[in-house]
Amino acid sequence: VQPVESGGGSVQAGGSLRLSCTASGLTFDDYAMGWFRQAPGQEREGVSFITWSGDTTYYGDSVKDSVKDRFFISRDNAKNTVYLQMNSLKPEDTAMYFCTADHFGVYDYCSGSWSPDYWGQGTQVTVSS
Questions:
Q1: 13 Cβ neighbours under 8 A, 6+ residues apart
Q2: What is the distance between the alpha carbons of residues 128 and 15, in angstroms, rounded to a whole number?
Q3: Mean of the per-residue pLDDT values for the chain?
């Protein structure tokens, strides 16, 4: 199982990007999907999570206040694909973004994050001021 990300790139502040992640080798409907990010010299942090059914989404606690009105996760189970729409990008959003898959995964309210089973290799997002 290898999630494969695409859609990263370089944009100016205020711009938008849509990240895509396609996962093969699994029953996609059985997997909660999510996005993490890691900036240079910083720890990896959960950005957004969507349940296997797609009916509920969450933000990671550490980024929630920063992204909740700008980033939106969605999924298309017919295409085995999850998306992260990122609007009004800021320089502090610059990071490597990783797609994750979690078999019947759930959001952990205690940690404000989740524990993926599989990780993609990442796609770089760079936002210039």
A1: 89, 90, 91, 127, 128, 129
A2: 10
A3: 95
